[in-house]
Amino acid sequence: MIFCSLKSISRAILVAAAASPLAWWAVGGSIGEEIRTSPNAVVELFTSQGCASCPPADELLGELSARRNVVALAYHVDYWDYIGWADTFADPAYSDLQRSYASSWGKSRIYTPQLIINGTRGLVGSRRAEIEEALSEAELPLEVGLIYADGVLAVRIGGNEDYPESSIWLVTYRSEADVDISRGENRGHSITYVQIVTSRQVLGMWEPKQGAALRLPLSDVLSGESDGVAIVVQQQKDGLPGPIIGAALFEM
Q1: Given pLDDT bands bounded at 50, 70 and 90, which one contains residue 237?
Q2: CA-closest candidate to residue 40, choices 157, 145, 139
Q3: Which residues are CB-contacts of 198 (< 8 A; sequence separation ≥ 6)?
Q4: Over the stretch 99-115, which tens digit does the pLDDT of each residue have?
Q5: In whole angstroms, what is the distance from residue 47 CA to residue 126 CA?
Q6: What is the pTM of this model?
Q7: Count of CB atoms within 10 A of residue 153's CB?
Q8: Using an 8 Å Cβ cutoff, are 123 and 139 in contact?
Q9: How far apart are CA 27 and CA 190, in angstroms?
Q10: Disulfide engineering: 85 pairs with which of 174, 183, 196, 227, CB 3.0-4.6 Å?
Q11: Do residues 34 and 251 lie in contact, with contact meaning Cβ atoms separated by under 8 Å?
């Protein structure tokens, strides 16, 4: 087949922030930590361990995640679990997110692997040439600045009145994991997965005139095996996900 078809952060402080140059808001902490503040694209891969067509897309996402101008996220869906292997990273909320994207585009069909770029364009996640072409045209107009110090991740987002009020999303992820699959379409394979989303929640709203600033205590944000955080500023359309206009990444 070509493709398979078909914590609240109570201590986060959100305050108004004046629109100002943010070049200095790209400061890391100790060696081994990574901050990525000026990406051109957020790529969201909807994938499943139970889909035979997904491993090439999972591998491609690994390549994309190494690029400094890309924030890569993998959402593992649960709607293929019935065919023999329950995805160990799947969450029904991620399947619902993919359905919401489809609804926002007036579509009803979802599939894996699907790669969504900046919340506006969905492609088959293994079609490298199409993805590279789309990435060459991608841009994120809003700069999201980060500073990490003393266990706290400070986020500052400048204002820009060319864009409407948008949601600020906190997405945590696990940077890498190997999975031995013993049943289903990928049985007998050991597959390396990257940028595995472990949680997604809205922190507040970005205001076009004032911007926003917040402080996140990472001991509250990162739990279990999560070791990375993405901040995503995304417009909403009638309660459905719209274009992503800014993003940044921090990884331990």
Answers
A1: confident
A2: 139
A3: 89, 172, 173, 174, 224, 225, 226
A4: 999 999 999 999 999 99
A5: 11
A6: 0.90
A7: 23
A8: no
A9: 37
A10: 183
A11: yes
CA proximity to 246, closest of 163, 149, 147: 163
Rounded Cα–Cα distance for residues 55 and 4 (Å): 12
Are 37 and 143 in contact by the 8 Å Cβ rule? The answer is: yes
Interval 13-47: pLDDT, tens: 444 343 344 433 454 545 468 999 999 999 999 99
Tens-place pLDDT, residues 117-164: 999 999 999 999 999 999 999 999 999 999 999 999 999 999 999 999
**What sections of 7-163 are H helices per DSSP?**
55-65, 92-104, 128-137
Name 166's bridge partners. 206
Distance of alpha carbon 168 from alpha carbon 163, whole angstroms? 14
Q: What CA–CA distances, in Å, run from 131 to 75, 109, 111?
A: 17, 20, 16
> Which tokens hold the place of 42?
């957020």
Would residue 119 be called left, alpha or beta, if left means φ above 0 and alpha means ψ between -120 and 50 degrees?
A: left
- SS3 state at 102: helix
Is the pLDDT reported for residue 240 higher than 70? yes
**What integer best gives the mean pLDDT of the chain?**
90
Ordered structural domains, the chain, with CATH: 13-251 (3.40.30.10)
For residue 220, the surrounding DSSP H or E stretch is helix 218-221
Three-state DSSP state, 133: helix
User: Which amino acid is residue 32, in one-letter code?
Assistant: G
